[in-house]
Amino acid sequence: MNFLTWGTDPWGQEVLIRISWDLLYVASVLGILFVGAHAVWLAFFVQEEAEAVDEAALAGVPEKVARHSLASRVFHWVMAAAMLALLLTGFLPVIGIQFPWVTIHWVAGVVLTLSVIYHTIHATFWLGLSAMLVGPKDISDAVSRFKRSIGQDAPAPRKHGKYPLENRLYHHAITLTGGLVIVTGILMMFRIDTPLWARDPYIFTDPTWGMIYVVHGLSAVSLVTLVIAHIYFGIRPEKRWITWSMVWGWIDRRHYVEHHDPEQWAARSEGSSGQR
Ligand code: HEM
Predict the structure, then answer these.
(1) Which of 80, 84, 210, 219 could form a disulfide with 16 if both were Cys (CB 3.0 to 4.6 A apart)?
(2) What contacts 81, CB < 8 A, 6 or more positions away?
């Protein structure tokens, strides 16, 4: 299997062009293997039983606990639509389904870029970044949770903050791959005709363009694996209450008490001011 695709420049020298599309199949298989392994693991190896909810704890919690503001939900679904459009227009031609994809692709790319800029500003100044940070206690909690899930003794872990550790790690992975695909995608727009700025394929040398296409391709195929995993978790029955919160904006109090630590994420009533 090849990892890179090489070509020849007008002077007969070998030059890097892009990744090898074999990597698209590797990324897809990895995503499918991960999903299959996780489903088998949960079905046959995890012994964890749901802890009974303390009925008294429910009393002080609003019936609908605010989780995502309208602005956050709109961002999420615009980004998801742009991401799917980019994956389809980027990869259908690679697997042999030819159509004029470039215009839809860069327009979806600009929509993704603008939505990510909006999200970065909104998250930094309004939501606060602390809910996404990972500290040593999160790691020891995760180790305890894992040990208990396979029947070993371990101290009781804290419940989750707003985002479980795995969601935070996923977010960091998507920030890295999404950031790389966006930066390289914007640069690649100098290679094509768009109304935004004049085409200028000479701003970089051929080897530099090769590197830019390699980084775009690598992050794009990584996004295939990440998106498969994300959709899988989004539709798993025990996670659907989180997915629905991305539609309606709130979670019910039973799920809040069952899964979340009020010290790390205080419950606020849906519709109250200051909802994030
Ligand atoms: C989910 C995110 C994305 C995926 C999966 C993706 C995938 C791809 C793929 C597979 C190619 C073909 C590359 C090659 O031939 O080596 C490509 C090219 C391209 N992409 Fe993306 N891309 C994404 C995001 C973006 C973004 C955010 C932009 C712009 C802001 C963008 C702009 C472009 C441009 C301009 C090209 C080059 C077209 C050409 O050279 O003819 N892409 N993309």
Answers:
(1) 210
(2) none
Q: Locate tokens 């503001």: which residue?
A: 69
Atom of ligand 1 nearest to the CA of 220: 5
CB 138 within 8 A of CB 211: no
What are the pocket residues of ligand 1 if the criterion is a CB atom closer than 6 Å to any ligand atom? 18, 83, 86-87, 90-91, 94, 102, 105-106, 109-110, 112-113, 181-182, 185-186, 188-189, 191-192, 213, 216-217, 220, 223
What is the tens place of the pLDDT at every residue in 75-128? 999 999 999 999 999 999 999 999 999 999 999 999 999 999 999 999 999 888
The answer to whether the CB of 191 falls within 8 A of the CB of 201 is yes
Q: Name the residue of 6, 79, 84, 105 to mutate for ligand 1: max ligand atoms within 8 A of Cβ.
A: 105
Residue with token string 């101290």? 155
CA nearest to 216, candidates 168, 184, 176, 174? 184
Q: What's the angle, vertex CA 134, arms to CA 160 and CA 275, rounded to 5?
A: 55
Q: How buried is 220 (Cβ within 10 angstroms: 0-12 exposed, 13-18 middle, 19+ buried)?
A: buried
The predicted-structure confidence for 219-264, as pLDDT tens digits, reads as follows 999 999 999 999 999 999 999 999 999 999 999 999 999 999 999 9
What pTM did the predictor assign? 0.91
DSSP 8-class letter at 127: I
